[in-house]
Write a structure and sequence with these properties.
Layout: H1 10-19, E1 27-31, H2 35-38, H3 47-55, E2 61-64, H4 66-72, E3 83-87, E4 89-91, E5 105-107, H5 111-116, E6 121-128, H6 133-153, E7 157-163, H7 174-186, E8 191-194, H8 200-208, E9 214-217, H9 225-237, E10 242-245, H10 247-250, H11 255-267, H12 272-281
Parallel strand pairs: 1-2, 1-10, 2-3, 3-6, 6-7, 7-8, 8-9, 9-10
Antiparallel strand pairs: 4-5
């Protein structure tokens, strides 16, 4: 049993500081765990190669599944390499049509696996809106159990709370997003990874609803990189602590340049125009 002495929390704080920079309190995380849910998407056929391209932009962290971590771990070893966020769970919610029914939420790793693989945080889903509330109950109980295990071993827990609907599309109703985010924090999340609600005022209310950092979830690919950067700039102004973006980074021709443009906004307090200039510089 870990002591209640706050000094025993040092490991958790050290790990989290590798993801959310101490100087800014913000983080740029690149999600590369999509293969577990959707399969080998374009530009994600070779995880080690994609990790190498993304890491060249020096993101704060990269989010991977257990298998992808083992395959690409060499790209994360050494000074100046990105931190690792390990995915703990999986769902068939976004599987290409025809999508299976009912949907499921399954465990694929544990916080202790995160320790063994050298992770700096672990991440899991919290879905609300299942047709059968017992599935949501099981999901919530699992998140709470993981939170307790994370506290025992000093591992930060990032929770991705999402409202769901039958077609698998995002639910960005501010009231539902606030509910899901609040449930995630109450269950023990150290960091929240949330959908953008689509307008600054409602997203500000989401950030204000919890006393932990809120990272913006990338979701589906946007029409242009400028659209993605505009979301980053807008949400940072409302108190977001950074982003967890996937396809909007690694499906671009120059992933490293996109990472640097986002970092310009997150860590340098730059403008959207400045971020676009960084992008053009490559």
């Amino acid at each position: 049993m870990v002591s209640d002495d706050p000094q025993w929390d040092l490991g958790r704080r050290r790990r989290l500081a590798r993801i959310l920079r101490r100087e800014t309190g913000r983080g740029v995380v690149v999600a590369l765990d999509h293969g577990l849910f959707i399969g080998p998407l374009p530009k994600l056929e070779s995880v080690p190669e994609t990790v190498r391209l993304v890491a060249a932009g020096q993101p704060d962290a990269i989010q991977l599944t257990p298998g992808a971590t083992l395959a690409a771990g060499g790209e994360l070893v050494g000074s100046g390499r990105p931190a690792l966020v390990l995915r703990l769970d999986a769902t068939n919610l976004w599987r290409p049509q025809p999508r299976p029914h009912p949907t499921y939420h399954a465990r694929v790793a544990t916080p202790a696996d995160g320790t063994r693989l050298g992770a700096d945080a672990v991440v899991c889903f919290l879905f609300i809106g299942y047709e059968d509330d017992r599935v949501e109950q099981t999901n919530l109980e699992r998140v709470a159990a993981w939170a307790a295990e994370c506290r025992e071993i000093g591992m930060p827990l990032i929770v991705e709370p999402l409202g769901i609907r039958p077609d698998g599309g995002p639910v960005r109703d501010p009231a539902i997003v606030r509910l899901a985010v609040r449930m995630a924090w109450e269950a023990g999340a150290d960091v929240i990874k949330a959908d953008y609600t689509g307008d600054p005022e409602s997203f500000r209310s989401v950030v204000a609803s919890v006393p932990v950092p809120v990272l913006v979830r990338g979701g589906p690919r946007t029409d242009t990189v400028r659209d993605s950067l505009a979301v980053v700039a807008e949400t940072l102004e409302q108190g977001a602590a950074g982003v967890v973006f996937g396809r909007n980074i690694w499906q671009q021709p120059n992933p490293a340049a996109v990472v640097r443009a986002i970092a310009h906004l997150c860590h340098e307090g730059g403008s959207l125009d400045g971020a676009l200039c960084r992008l053009a510089e490559g």
